[in-house]
Amino acid sequence: MRLVALYDANVLYPAPLRDLLMQLAYDEVIEAHWTSQIHDEWIRNVALDRPDLNPEKLQAVAQLMDSSVEGALIQGFEAGIETLTLPDPDDRHVLAAAIYAKAQVIVTNNLKDFPREVLAPFCIQAQNADDFVLGLLETNQAVVVQVLRTIQARLRKPSVPMMDYLATLERVGLNKSLEIIKAGILKEKQ
After folding, report:
1. What span, in angstroms and rounded, lies between the C-alpha atoms of 77 and 96?
2. Do 126 and 95 meet the contact criterion of CB atoms below 8 Å apart?
3. Are 150 and 23 in contact (CB under 8 A)?
4. Which of 11, 107, 135, 176 is 20 to 30 A from 31, comparing alpha carbons?
5. pLDDT in tens, 25-42
6. Which CATH number fits domain 3-130: 3.40.50.1100, 3.40.50.1010, 2.60.120.200, 3.90.190.10?
7. Cα–Cα distance, 104 to 122 (Å, whole number)
């Protein structure tokens, strides 16, 4: 049985991390979910930080995500929002969607907003993106490395060497995971 995860907006914001998380879902390594509200949040923040990007293209990315991973877009969870209490009330929709999706983990880089004691009754834990990928590496390193190879192979305009691609992932916060991945890739080359 695959791990069920709900992606928060802050892990979908950086394109390289979004690409990795999407490929993990597309390759059915995990069962991933998100909501329209989560899309709106990451798109709004990217547009604020990158006014040079066309908002319609960002919406097209969200639509592509929805169509690429069947059943990933969660709808119908909204009734549960008002019953939840979190440090930041604006994050209640994320927890409500996770409960609705029967997620085991919320992948978020805002761990303080999802306290363990609030999530425990729902059998959900919050993990930052690095720990999430690290956990996947611990259960099946070969599959995660293949996902990385798939992504790196399609980076063709211009072509990006694997170690440069991994450095990009390191810049978006996958530090512990990349130590293991780099060691595994270097071992393969020997």
Report:
1. 6
2. no
3. yes
4. 176
5. 999 999 999 999 999 999
6. 3.40.50.1010
7. 9
